[in-house]
């Protein structure tokens, strides 16, 4: 019986943060627990075995930045831009999370679909991090697939509400990777970078208009670029209750988006992997309800009764 691969490590949620820090670090464990509880038998769990190696990180990032972050020599100003205080624990968590996305790419190559229960560090640039992102797992997973000859044309399809500015700069010089970002124009980062295709939507956008943008964009890019692998950032900060999003997508809208992306990949027989991306609400249960739409959609499209 086919079980959809999901990648997890308890360290995803293990990060001691200053009191009142806005980042909902508990969400990863909460989502993982929810998936196992709600869909017993539908998913096969793959634990991340080891942290990502420096040489792998160097496929995208400059050595001095990698070394400074890992050793703790990185400046306080640089950490401020990332948004977390530097700790050994944070380094470990970061390296396991990135390793998780790379592992997810390998599993999707083998099985056609795989999900990482974290990931989507699209604000990480080659030589600096920002917006809760240190190393660009999306660009790294793409490079790894290309280097292993497991793909020749990788589409990074980023639907987080914030622009994938770091992914754009990390992949700018590589014509084998096509970067698409569908984001809210009036949102972080203030200074946008140039993806291969940027769609900056207006504030307060609602389900129907949003879903037709996602569908038309994906259809167009698949027929024009002809990817043989899709990396999907399924950020849910598009949700109407999100603290950092500015558009008005419902939970049903999130489910419909994830389903349409998976469905198009499946129909075109293109392997697809997804990361959960951004999502910010103080109420972890409510936030988990929205993140849960991704595994729910994967199950609807790739589940054993739908193959
Ligand atoms: Zn975001």
Give a verbal description of the structure.
The protein has 307 residues and is of the alpha/beta class. It has one domain: Histone deacetylase domain (Arginase, Chain A, 3-Layer(aba) Sandwich). Helix content is 42%, strand content 13%. The protein contains 11 helices and 8 strands. It has helices at 27-38, 54-57, 63-71, 76-82, 88-111, 137-147, 165-171, 207-225, 251-267, 284-291, 293-302, and strands spanning 4-8, 43-47, 113-116, 154-158, 177-184, 197-201, 229-233, 272-275. It has an 8-stranded parallel beta sheet with strand order 2-1-3-8-7-4-5-6, sandwiched between helices. The protein is globular, with a radius of gyration of 17 Å. The model has no long low-confidence stretch (mean pLDDT 97). Zinc ion is lined by residues 160-162, 235, 237, 278.
What is the chain-wise order of helices and strands?
Answer: EHEHHHHEHEHEEHEHEHH
Strand order of the largest sheet: 2-1-3-8-7-4-5-6
CATH superfamily: Histone deacetylase domain
The portion of residues forming beta strands comes to: 5-15%
Shape: globular
Heterogens: zinc ion
Rounded Rg: 17 Å
List how many beta strands DSSP finds.
8
In CATH terms, what is the architecture?
3-Layer(aba) Sandwich
Structural class, please?
alpha/beta
Main beta sheet, described?
8 strands, parallel
The level of helicity is 40-55%
Q: Please state the average pLDDT score.
A: 97
Distance between the termini: 11 Å
CATH C-level: Alpha Beta
* CATH-assigned fold name: Arginase, Chain A
How many helical elements? 11
Family: Belongs to the histone deacetylase family.
Protein name: Histone deacetylase
GO molecular function: histone deacetylase activity; hydrolase activity
Domain Histone deacetylase: 21-283
């Amino acid at each position: 019986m086919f079980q959809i691969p999901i990648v997890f490590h308890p360290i995803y949620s293990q990060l001691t943060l200053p009191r009142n820090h806005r980042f909902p670090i508990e969400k990863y464990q909460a989502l993982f627990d929810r998936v196992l509880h709600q869909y017993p038998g539908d998913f096969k769990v793959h634990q991340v075995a080891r942290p990502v190696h420096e040489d792998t990180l160097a496929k995208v990032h400059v050595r001095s930045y990698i070394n400074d972050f890992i050793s703790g020599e990185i400046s306080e100003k640089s950490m401020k831009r990332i948004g977390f205080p530097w700790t050994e624990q944070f380094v470990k968590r970061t390296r396991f999370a990135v390793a998780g996305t790379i592992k997810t790419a390998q599993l999707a190559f083998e099985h056609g679909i795989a999900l990482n229960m974290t990931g989507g560090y699209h604000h990480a640039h080659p030589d600096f991090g920002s917006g809760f992102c240190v190393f660009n797992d999306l660009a790294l997973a793409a490079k790894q697939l290309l280097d292993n000859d497991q793909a020749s044309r990788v589409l990074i399809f980023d639907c987080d509400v914030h622009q994938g500015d770091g992914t754009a700069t990390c992949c700018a010089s590589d014509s084998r990777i096509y970067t698409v970002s569908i984001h809210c124009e009036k949102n972080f980062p203030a200074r946008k970078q140039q993806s291969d295709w940027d769609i900056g939507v207006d504030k307060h956008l609602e389900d129907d208009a949003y879903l037709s943008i996602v569908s038309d964009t994906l259809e167009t890019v698949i027929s024009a670029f002809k990817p043989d692998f899709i990396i999907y950032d399924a950020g849910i900060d598009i949700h109407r209750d999100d603290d950092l999003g500015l558009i008005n997508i419902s939970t049903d809208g999130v489910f419909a988006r994830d389903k349409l992306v998976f469905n198009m990949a499946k129909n075109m027989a293109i392997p697809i992997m997804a990361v959960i991306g951004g999502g910010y609400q103080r109420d972890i249960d409510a936030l988990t309800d929205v993140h849960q739409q991704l595994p729910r959609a994967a199950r609807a499209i790739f589940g054993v009764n739908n193959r």
